[in-house]
Amino acid sequence: MAGIKDVARVAGVSAATVSRALSGNGSVSTSARERVTRAARDLGFVLSYPASALASGRSRNIGVVLPFISRWYFSTVLEGIASALTEAGYDLTLYNFQKDKFREKVLTDFLQRNRTDGLIAVALQLDDQEIGQLRASGLPTVGVGGPLQGIPTIRIDDRAVSRQATDHLIGLGHTRISHIGGENEEGHSFPISLGRRAGYTSAMQAASLPVLPAWSIISDYTTSDAYRQAKQLLADPVQRPTAFFCASDEMAMGAMMAARDLGLRVPDDLSVIGIDGHETGDILGLTTLDQSARQQGVRAVHRLLGQLGPTPADVGPADEILPARFLLRTSTAAPRRDQTVTAPPSSTVQVGL
Amino acid sequence: MAGIKDVARVAGVSAATVSRALSGNGSVSTSARERVTRAARDLGFVLSYPASALASGRSRNIGVVLPFISRWYFSTVLEGIASALTEAGYDLTLYNFQKDKFREKVLTDFLQRNRTDGLIAVALQLDDQEIGQLRASGLPTVGVGGPLQGIPTIRIDDRAVSRQATDHLIGLGHTRISHIGGENEEGHSFPISLGRRAGYTSAMQAASLPVLPAWSIISDYTTSDAYRQAKQLLADPVQRPTAFFCASDEMAMGAMMAARDLGLRVPDDLSVIGIDGHETGDILGLTTLDQSARQQGVRAVHRLLGQLGPTPADVGPADEILPARFLLRTSTAAPRRDQTVTAPPSSTVQVGL
DNA sequence: CTGAAAGCGCTAACAA
DNA sequence: TTGTTAGCGCTTTCAG
After folding, report:
1. Selecting from 2.60.40.10, 1.20.58.100, 3.40.50.2300, 1.10.10.10, what CATH number does the domain B158-291+326-339 have?
2. What is the tens place of the pLDDT at every residue in A36-73?
3. Buried (b) or exposed (e) across A194-210, using 16+ Cβ within 10 A?
């Protein structure tokens, strides 16, 4: 393995100049740069990361913390982050909570080892103490999806987007609308789920529409759970809604499959709208609000890298709210007449959040 | 930021002992270990990774190279890898080709910076020169999914599993079976796709069944592309198959949706079988061969870490073939009589691989 | 623009 | 078991 000195010798310069030429820091004459570059290529030399990191204090490595990998939103955001980081010449170290299994370990051990120059937290639900641990790492941090106390976050306005989705259904004439979303998880507030549910509730209230308790469904964001729960509700002739607003496309697809398996047609018998912009929604005709997940990841990287430069750019904790794009496809339509006129059952009650 | 010397002073020992106590290498008396641990905790001290890596030559970091993240197989394998690495106290650095966009950059730059102790290559399709670059990194490497010249790989037997899937359809009485799979990509052999197609072809040949050219479909592994291609084929009354064997569950689901949109029922009018074990396949009733993707990732980590210890375990390049579990659900059944008796069109030809 | 020299914070002999 | 002593391979003042 050739070292920096070998390159220096071959190029006829000092190790310092090799460092400057190869790292891009400091000024080097064009001719010296060329000789160094060629010598490095010939010798198959690449700067050692640990050594550079130790000497300079910067590692050109960003940590990404997330609770899941294989769900659509997370893997899509991750792809955006990975792409932007590679382009910028940064490495990406992945920290996965695996739901909660490694939550503690990641927060206390891994993040403190200053292996990274900064952190991106994707849809993390942290309590105050955990946010404290995160900040104790002293690393510049940017969040993606869902507000994080005191940390600038790239996200959509969950409440407004959800309200828009629900209003779309209401505008079509639906009055019996159910919401499938997430919940406030044990001890950890989950602002994304809460915000989306709040958007649904506020839209229903604004339209003076009742919300049956059975219509406010708590799921785990998987297609299969949404399928099961939607099926159960749809099978009940008394409580059956004419439309679903789902907090994710994966759940919306589950609801569509449930309807089909019950012999209900979408959108004739049931309208479904989601949030995400999942590619597969296209062929199912799923109407949705595209939150450009990949772009959220890209933006987070740019924002974070902007803070790392010699002139730290925007440092404020202000959140950056990305717009969601309404994709009207074929899963939503006006309810059938005989459904609309059906008065809500007398047991109807208003349910607040 | 407290340094190792501060801890040493507080604990009343030397820096070397602090290092030994905290890293777990070398022997330390119980009392010294306790004092060091407490002092470190009190001072909020954690060993610096770059410094440790530089001094010891080991980084406790594994690189994972993959061409995609957001597809089911890749994100699931990645989750298995991440889980096993976290458990072992290793970090995970992600290198994503993004199909081909960063292929060159990752191979030539990123991997050579010896930031990692080893590499896991997931379903990579590399030509000889690229494999050379990979090995030039000098890092212990393990592959996952699809053979890699000279690199021990954890995988299923693509050909055998595909043959089993096809034989299942043949056993049910199907004679008009189409395969949706991948291809040999520009310059890069793609052993996974080739192996699966070979399994299909050999099963058909063994049963003396013809394979129409239109039945051998090349897709990009996405649900939507498989949907479009399956729909087109199914819409052709002359060439329409009675069954699909798909190289992935995501494509199989696309085929099922295509059938439904054409008014065909699964399995009455069309049987579909996939490979993967995708969770969503469950609610669709998709018959498949579960390749336990997550487990492949876990195994790869154990195998790789086994090579890193002081006593390198099994070093041989022998591949480790994992079994696939046959999940019989409701998407496959015997073809309807009137379909079976239809003789293949006279234009039928045998297509070899 | 370039070189010399002094570390960055830890680990690994080697001795004790 | 523990301390001492050299570095690991770069980066970065500081001069020139």
Report:
1. 3.40.50.2300
2. 999 999 998 999 999 999 999 999 999 999 999 999 99
3. bbbbbbbbbbbeeeebb
